[in-house]
Write a structure and sequence with these properties.
This protein has 226 residues and is α+β, with helices and mostly antiparallel strands. It is 24% helix and 43% strand. The protein contains two helices and twelve strands, in the order H-E-E-E-E-E-E-H-E-E-E-E-E-E.
């Protein structure tokens, strides 16, 4: 009886040691997964529940073929999770939720197309309020943007041949507002957007999302082309 109890006690100690060694790793993995799910859900819920938001940004673009960086600034307006407008130094992109107008000031040309057909732009309504549908998320770490503590999320597309191949979001830890975006596109461009000023639930008229063709500007209408 004494020998049997001693063996059983040793087995119990080994099982206990195994649990103590490996359970913390499993617990941490589970905690990280849960934390990631919480973060992505909170970000999407934040922007879905916002009636509107306006953001002032600075932009930096680096092409894969050139060392020089192109810098600019502008403003973004979002409303009802489907309408958006981007005004910058060189271009203007406007969508009423159905149609997208892309106005190149340099070329004096406007392209008009259905929103679902336009693949070469960053659709903020998709990436802010519904990115989990099309992208896998990874929690990359922590950082500070404008002295605000942020969490860094990396998004990779679930499908192949997407225009944006990799996307990083700096999410403010306290408010779940996105303070910075960096992405790489299929043309090997590296684009960075820093949101210097964010105004949630700003009063934005629907007229902000309608486009008026400037005089002397060419219109290229692609809406009926399949």
């Amino acid at each position: 009886m004494i020998l049997y109890s001693s063996i059983e006690f040793k087995k119990l100690k080994l099982r206990t040691l195994f649990i103590l060694l490996f359970m913390p790793a499993f617990a941490i993995m589970g905690l990280q997964a849960q934390t990631l799910a919480d973060i992505t859900h909170s970000v999407e819920s934040k922007y879905r529940n916002l009636k509107s938001v306006s953001m002032v940004f600075t932009k930096e673009v680096k092409s894969g073929n050139f060392d020089a960086k192109e810098k600019g600034k502008g403003k973004i307006w979002l409303k009802n999770s489907d309408k958006f407008r981007i005004d910058s130094d060189r271009e203007q992109i406007i969508s009423d939720g159905k149609i997208v107008w892309i106005y190149s000031k340099e070329n004096k040309q406007v392209t008009k197309n259905r929103k679902e057909k336009v693949k070469n732009i960053l659709d903020f309504s998709q990436y802010f309020s519904d990115f989990n549908s099309n992208y896998e998320s990874t929690l990359k770490g922590k950082d500070k943007i404008l002295d605000l503590p942020c969490l860094i999320l990396e998004l990779t597309p679930k499908k192949e041949n997407e225009f944006i191949t990799r996307l990083f979001l700096w999410v403010e830890s306290k408010t779940y507002l996105i303070r910075k975006i960096e992405y790489f596109d299929i043309n090997d461009n590296h684009v960075s957007l820093l949101f210097n000023q964010i105004s949630p639930n700003a009063k934005i008229s629907d007229n902000k999302f309608s486009f008026q063709l400037p005089q002397g500007v060419e219109l290229v209408d692609l809406t009926d082309i399949k």
